[in-house]
From TrEMBL:
Family, per entry: Belongs to the gamma-glutamylcyclotransferase family.
Domain Gamma-glutamylcyclotransferase AIG2-like residues, every copy: 8-129
Record protein name field: Gamma-glutamylcyclotransferase family protein
Domain of life (superkingdom): Eukaryota
One GO molecular-function entry: gamma-glutamylaminecyclotransferase activity
Basic and acidic residues compositional bias, start-end: 145-158
GO CC list: cytosol
Active site: E86
Source organism: Pseudolycoriella hygida
Membrane-spanning intervals of the chain: none
Alphabetical list of InterPro entries matching this protein: AIG2-like_dom (IPR009288), GGACT (IPR039126), GGCT-like (IPR013024), GGCT-like_sf (IPR036568)
Region (Disordered): 137-158
Pfam family, one: GGACT
Amino acid sequence: MSSSLSKVFVYGTLKKNQPNHYWLTNKNNGAASFLSNGTTKIRYPLVISTRYNIPFLLNKPGIGRNIKGEIYEINDEMLTKLDILEDYPELYDRQIEPIETDSGLVHCWVYLLRNFPTKMLDKSHLEEYTETSELPYLESYDSSSEPHDAFDISKDRL
């Protein structure tokens, strides 16, 4: 059974040296290979929010900045795993976006947060996500929450 290949643009915790990068390197999730760094051609607001300091790319094209990230070529199995991680299609939209690279334009899947409180747009808009000591990404969950609660922006402080 053959698997088709897709390109995905990652901008947050899936990037190299970030806490969820292991999703892309775990062979049990499928295949992924780094292709290039890139920048969104369209501006989007990239913000850090919730009590877990999660980076969110808000689906508000034309607002924010051109976002820097990484492009990976992935197989269908990896795309399915990333859909689970990003809770697509419940929480995130996954759509093809033009990404600028040194070699030209590449069209990639990008995960964008669909429904969010408008006050998230008031947060600082980042050009690039790097885990900082001021807002470290928190992977652990308290005993009263489920891992999925990390993405429930309606329950967390924004």
